[in-house]
Each structure stands twice: as C-alpha cells, then as structure tokens.
Amino acid sequence: MDDVTNPLLDPSPLPYDLPLFALIRHDHYAEALEVTMAAQRAAVEAIASDPDDPTFANTMLPLERSGLALDGVLAVFENASSADTDVEIEAIDARFAPQLAAHRDAIRLDQRLFARVQSLFERLDELGLAPDERYLVERAHHDAVLAGAALDEGSRARLGELNQRLSVLTTAFQQHLLADTNDLALHLTDAESIAGLDEGSASAAREAASSRGLDGWLLTLVLPTGQPALATLAEPATRDALLAASRARGRRGGEHDTRSTLLEIVALRAERAALLGVESHAAAVTAGQTAGSPEAVAALLGELSGPAMRNVEREREQLTARAASLGAREVAASDWAFLAGRVAAEHDALALAEVRQYLEFDRVLVDGVFHAANLLYGLGFEARPDLIGYHPDTLVYEVFEHDGAPVGLYLLDAYTRDSKRGGAWMSSLVEQSDLTGRLPVVVNNLNIPKPAPGEPTLLTFDEAGTLFHEFGHALHGLLARVRFPSQAGTRVFRDFVELPSQVNELWLLRPEVMASFAVHHETGERMPQHLQDRLRATAGIESGFSTAEYLAAAALDQAWHRMPAGATPDLSDLDAVDAFERTALTAIGLAHPLVPPRYGSTYFAHVFAGGYDAGYYSYIWSEVPGADIMAWFEANGGATRANGDRFRQEILGPGGSRDPRESIRALLGREVSIEPLLARRGLG
Ligand SMILES: [Zn+2]
User: Fold this and answer.
1) pLDDT tens, 90-122?
2) Most buried residue, 72, 74, 204, 433, by CB count within 10 Å?
C-alpha cells in the first residue's frame, strides 16, 4: 500500500538514503514540506523555551538537527524544480516559496533563540569549544544579525514582508525566464541556414524540433548570452538571429518580460539593506564573504578590466584581419566566436569540430573525470544501474576509497530538456555529517544536447570543461569530512565555493589525464599531439573576450546591488534597464559593442533567481587563490596522490567548518598571490 506513506517522510530503504524517486508523486512534496516545517518549528520552540542557560549542547546541536528533515525534502524538491519541472511543480514552488521564506525568518528572527546564540557568542572564549563548534556559533550569530534578529519589532516585521515578496519575485523571474527561453528557441527550416553546424549539433537540433512537432531544426538557447552554435554556424544571418534571440530574453514586452520583476527585486533588496543599517545590498552580502566589502570587489574588477579590454582590442584586430581574408563583413558581435574559431583553426588543417570526435561523453567521464579523481584521491567508481535516479537519463555511480570503503553516491544528469533550467550545477541530496552518520549523495546537472538515438554524445571542448568543473563541486560534497551538516562540502562562502571546481578544470588539459580520455570515438586513436598542443595553446585565445564578458556581468550585478534605497529606478520605467546597463558598463570601462555581458540583466538568473545576488564576482574572486593552487599543483608534479591528499585534507574535507582563508593558507603555507591568475588569463 504505497499510497498510505510518503517516500519523502519515511526513511529511505535505499543505500546512502538515496530518495525513493520511483515512488515520489507531486502531492508528496506539499505534504512533506508542511510536515517537516512544522517539525522544525516545534524543535526550535523547544530550544527557545528551554529554561536552562544556553550551552552549545542545548542550543546549537538541536538547532543543527532541527532542519535536517526539511533540508532533505527541499533538496529533492529543488532538484525536481531545477532539473525536471512541470506546471504542477512550478505551482508548488510558487505556493511554498513565500511560506519557506516566512518559516526561515521566524527562526532567524526569534528573539528568544537569538538571545541564546548571542549569549554563546559573547562567551566564546569561556566555553572551551572545539574550533568547528566555535565557528558554527560565529556564523550563526553573523547570519542572525544580517537577517535582522537584532532589529526592533517593527523593522523585523517589515523585513519579513520584504523577504516573502522577494521570494515570490525571484520565483517569478525564474519561471518567466524559462518560458521566454523556450519561446525564443530559433526555428530554422532551410538547410542553408544551418550550414557549418557539426553533425552532432544538427542532429540534436532536429531532435529538438521534432520533440515540439516541428519540421527542420530548433536551436534551443543556453543561459549565457553566447550560444555554442555561434562558433560554427556559417551563415551570418543565422548567427545574428540566434544572438538576437538570446539577448531578447526577458526584454521584449509581453507576459514573460522580466524587467519590472527585476526592478522590484533591486528596490526591495536595497530597502532591506537600509533596514539593517547597511549602505547597500552588496555591502550586506559581501560582509559575510571572504571579499568583505563591495569596495574590495570593485578594486579587483577594476584591476582586471583594463588588461581584459586591451586583450579584447588585440583579439578584435586579429578577427578583423581574418574577416577580411575570408571576404566576410565587418566584425559584428555575433561573428566573434565564429571568427575566433577560424583564427584558432588556421594554424593547422583541423576544424574546430574535429576536437569533438575525441571527446566522447562516456570516455571523458570515466577515463577523464573519474580517472583524475583516482590519480588524486584514490577514488573508485562503480555504475549502479539498479539504483533509480529521478529521470531516465540520470546515471548513478557508487564512489569508493582506494581501500574499498564507501564514500557516497554520484548522480549525473547530462542532457538538456525543456523541463530543465539552463546552465550546469551541482546539488546535494544528502550531506555528509558525523553528527548524522550519513554519507553524501550529490548530483551534477549539465545541459548537453541529446543526440539522436544510436548516435554518440560528442562533447564540445567547453562542455568537457564544464563536466570537469561541476565534478569539482561534486568532489567537494563527496569528500566532506565534518561533524555538522551545515558545514559540509559546498556549504561554504559563496566567493570560495567555486575554488574546488575551478581547480578541477586543471585536469582536463593535463597530459596524465588527457592521454587516457581523448580518444577518437570510432577509431580508438589517441588525439594527435598537435591537436592537444593546439588546445593547450589556444585555451586562452578568447581570454580577453571571455574575461571581459564575465567582468561585465559581474559589474552589472554589483551596480544593481550597490544602489542605496530610494535611488532605484521606477518600476514602470522598463527602458531604465537598458540605460542602467549602458551606464554601469561605461563606468567600469567594459562597454564594448562586440562584447555583450555574459548575462544581460533580464536573463541574469544567477542574481535575480539563483542566489548569486551581489555575488557573481565570486567566480573571479575565488579564481585568484584557485589559480595560485593550480600553479602549486603544477609545480609539485600535477595529479599525484600526495598532492590530491593534501588538497583534500586542507580544502575539500574541512568545507565550511573553518574560515576558507585559513584553509587556503594551510594548503599554500603563505598568503595568496594574484600573479598566477593574471598569467593564466593572459592579463599582463
Ligand atoms: Zn561552479
């Protein structure tokens, strides 16, 4: 009688507490969310009303346990709403988002609970706590203050209203963006218009068209401004149309326009910062990160923008020369990736698409990504087709230590589909924790076009890089060794969380890894040395462009969120969005007609729906120590067990159980230098 129980509330009978996906129905989500929220409320009430003086054991430990069941349900639900959503799930999301915001506020703003945390915080030196316990108290106190726990009652009430409204708005932003992204997919019926597209992408485009009952080809949009097909489509008019569709998302009027939503989000975040007595939303966010302040972020962005734009100009000159030699038109924004590919290819006879023949998905995963993890950490991976993921395309692997001890489960959901949001990401279904005795279950999601049945999945070089990147996050979750689940793996500062994933990208091009996976999918021949050399040599060829488009997006995010309350544009002034973007980019020297920001504001899901608000700078921020650590790996012999174990010991294992600056210093034995980043990105 499976309908008398709820698989989200009952203990899972599966290994590693893998959720029983096969039995989860939509109505289970709502019930499980309500039940676990109520359970946490009751647990928090018991802590808050405890007549005994606050101790770590009677306050922090039960607080840590109180949210475990809800977090578990949310992990499964958020995975569904991101990776395989539908109208019912969207409705549940829209219904529960404000309730969850209110629930979290009720806990963080509970005055009795805050008094207990405050008391522990004031007595930190007397309590004799272990370092991870002390850090747990410090972070809980910081978070409560930033959530408004120290404010008076009227301000706390207004704060609660703002948070609930914001959760509604960010959910709406996400849903409108997904709808507009699907609507704007470029439908082509004329074979000439897709000339240049490699066979794998063309076949995926045919598949996408037929899945919507259309003839011809459908080029679906990925989240960033730049679309992968721009690098190969030979027809300028198709490239123009594709880039225009990408840039139009959220700003073409109609029901899925996101401009008024984002303007309201910006205004409410500014108001919230003012309530907290902080200058701006960006100031509130960065205070709890390694950066510390928006000024520190602006300094780094400013330091990099000049060199990046100089490289952009150099690259533009190369592309202009290439365009002239091809008899092509004057370089337009939509030509950049195409011409950059031609510049890269002109040094040898092989076309860019040739690389894909050596990047067959399974091999890249098993002989590349897993192989690197074996060299570095001694990990072994075993496919578990008997364990059912949440979608037929989800692969499940069991992960082992070199001595066979269990590590956790790794789920990989590689293919794009209309029910999945754009981008690539990692999430945790179960966190490692000594307190709970549980081992981790982590998920990677990618958006690789699915080939037609019977055809191999051949990755682009970028997609292979993304797989290595996301697996770096997965390792952070899998190799966590902490006591408290809220400190496990990726539950670290946002401007530190990208470090393990960036470092893991190193292995894609390292010879000891590349030699084993870069094999022709039909002939089994190794990727020719000159092609490998070219990939290594050209890894930075778009460095100016990709650095500048990233910096532009980071600058937009900061600019929106550094506005003080009262200074934000009127909500009905939709044209204000374009004008604001121009002004912000000009101010930092990143306005360039050929280099649009990696995300336009109207489709900037990271900051208006994805939790990276005032934090998109994080990627380059963590790349400073990340590049330094990559240089450390390279100077010490690359992918060896000794290097891997040290990285695991100091960075991956401790996760959020100590200040990340401490972890970085412990690994390097010195302060971080910016030079490796400048060298890696070719920013002299
Ligand atoms: Zn990442």
Assistant:
1) 999 999 988 998 899 899 999 999 999 999 999
2) 204
